[in-house]
């Protein structure tokens, strides 16, 4: 009897450990994560406007918004994002490989109707500090926790008639590699 | 022999409890630690890097990119006020007031997250296309047939979920979290 109780207690304890381990493994192993879903719709390094319907590309997408997505890969260096956000309501959010947002700006933060952000990997931070050009607008730089990820530009459409223009605007957002600057000795 | 049976029992129990708990919590979310206002549920931390492992796993399983916390806060309703699951065969009347937000939107989705289409288009109600009545609360009808006032068409069959997203809102922040206001009440009307 004691042995059975002992076995039950051991089973429950191990069950807790299994639960914790599998829970942390879910984002790493989930098929059809947001990044994977975007693989078909948005190429690396360019914004693509997502289709209006269907859950295949990003489920639970607000139908009142026009959404454009761009996947980034920091292996080749920092990526510069530039998006126009109209003052009706627009936002730009940067998500890591597992879909978790780690940075977001709304049109309130826009200068001249646009936001500009440079995404760096943690390895590139020191280099970027050396390269900082003294002139020009100070660049907004954020460090991505993962080497790949995606950026969403979401523009509010107050009605169907506003959509075509917003789709054009969202598609014009850029997510190229940052132009490399010369390091002066 | 008994020892082998006990070992099988231990590992069976561990796998059952561990995987079962993971499956259930990822599919349904943690029953506590959420912001609940009537039938509406929200996870204010899900859109930050401080999201807990349950929120991360849930978002990854749904394939969703959570809304950043600085952007907005989505509330999800899977049941009506009486606790019955939302069904596309029924009509619903939503009524109430909404907390301060720069913008809000309401949309119906299938449980897997594709928007409920009406006449081949996906349209969502939002604060820019809604009709308000002077002095009265906000009223929205969800029905298969056209209704006067604010109407969101339902089509298809089976369960659905409602998502009410408040953009640029303070609700969900620590200051407001202690004082949840009533959101839209969801009343079921006739079913077909």
What topology emerges from the helices and strands here?
The complex is a heterodimer of chains A (185) and B (192).
Chain A: H1 2-29, H2 34-41, E1 48-49, E2 65-73, E3 79-84, E4 90-96, E5 101-106, E6 114-120, H3 125-131, E7 141-143, E8 148-156, H4 163-171, E9 174-177
Chain B: H1 2-28, E1 35-37, E2 40-42, H2 53-62, E3 72-77, E4 90-96, E5 101-109, E6 125-126, E7 138-143, E8 150-153, E9 161-169, H3 174-177, E10 185-191
Parallel strand pairs in B: 7-8
Antiparallel strand pairs in B: 1-2, 2-3, 3-9, 4-7, 4-10, 5-6, 5-9
Helix pairs in contact in B: 1-2
Fold and architecture overview:
The complex is a heterodimer of chains A (about 180) and B (about 190). Chain A has helices at about 1-30, 35-40, 125-130, 165-170, and strands spanning about 50, 65-75, 80-85, 90-95, 100-105, 115-120, 140-145, 150-155, 175. With about 180 residues, chain A is α+β, with helices and mostly antiparallel strands. Chain A folds into two domains: about 1-30; about 35-175, Immunoglobulin-like, CATH 2.60.40. In chain A, strands 1-2-8-4-5 form a five-stranded antiparallel sheet, sandwiched between helices. Chain A has a four-stranded mixed sheet with strand order 7-6-3-9. Chain A starts with a helix and ends in an 8-residue tail after the last strand. The model of chain A has no long low-confidence stretch (mean pLDDT about 85). By secondary structure, chain B is an alpha+beta fold. Chain B has two domains: about 1-30; about 35-190, Jelly Rolls, CATH 2.60.120.600. Chain B contains three helices and ten strands. In chain B, the strands form two sheets. A six-stranded antiparallel sheet of chain B has the order 1-2-3-9-5-6, with no helix packed on it. A four-stranded mixed sheet of chain B has the order 8-7-4-10, with no helix packed on it. In chain B, strand 1 and strand 2 (about 40) form a beta hairpin. In chain B, helix 1 packs across helix 2. The N and C termini of chain B lie far apart (about 60 Å). The model of chain B has no long low-confidence stretch (mean pLDDT about 85).
């Amino acid at each position: 009897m004691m042995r059975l109780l002992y076995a039950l207690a051991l089973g429950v304890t191990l069950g807790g450990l299994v639960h914790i381990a599998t829970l942390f493994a879910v984002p790493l192993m989930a098929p059809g994560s947001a990044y994977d879903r975007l693989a078909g719709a948005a190429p690396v390094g360019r914004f693509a406007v997502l289709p209006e319907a269907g859950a295949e590309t990003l489920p639970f997408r607000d139908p009142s918004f026009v959404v454009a997505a761009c996947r980034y890969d920091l292996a080749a260096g920092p990526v510069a994002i530039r998006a126009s956000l109209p003052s009706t309501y627009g936002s730009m959010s940067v998500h890591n490989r597992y879909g978790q947002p780690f940075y977001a700006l709304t049109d309130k933060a826009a200068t001249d109707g646009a936001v500009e952000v440079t995404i760096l990997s943690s390895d590139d931070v020191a280099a970027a500090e050396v390269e900082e050009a003294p002139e020009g607008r100070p660049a907004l730089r954020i460090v991505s926790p993962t080497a790949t990820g995606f950026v969403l530009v979401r523009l509010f459409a107050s009605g169907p008639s506003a959509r075509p223009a917003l789709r054009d605007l969202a598609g014009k957002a850029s997510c190229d590699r940052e132009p490399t600057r010369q390091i002066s000795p | 022999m008994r020892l082998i049976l006990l070992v099988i029992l231990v590992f069976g129990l561990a796998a059952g409890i561990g995987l079962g708990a993971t499956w259930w919590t990822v599919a349904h979310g943690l029953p506590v630690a959420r912001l609940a206002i009537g039938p509406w549920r929200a996870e204010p931390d899900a859109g930050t890097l401080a999201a807990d492992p349950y929120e991360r796993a849930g978002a990854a399983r749904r394939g969703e990119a959570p809304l950043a916390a600085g952007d907005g806060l989505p509330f999800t309703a899977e049941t009506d006020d009486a606790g019955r699951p939302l069904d596309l065969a029924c009509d619903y009347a939503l009524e109430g007031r909404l907390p301060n937000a720069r913008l809000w939107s309401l949309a119906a989705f299938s449980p897997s997250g594709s928007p409920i289409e009406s006449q081949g288009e996906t349209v969502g109600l939002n604060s820019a296309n809604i009709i308000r009545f002077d002095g009265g609360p906000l009223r929205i009808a969800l029905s298969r047939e056209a209704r006067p006032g604010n109407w969101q068409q339902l089509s298809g069959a089976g369960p659905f979920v409602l998502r009410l997203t408040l953009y640029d809102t303070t609700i969900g922040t620590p200051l407001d979290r202690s004082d949840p206001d009533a959101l839209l009440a969801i009343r079921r009307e006739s079913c077909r």
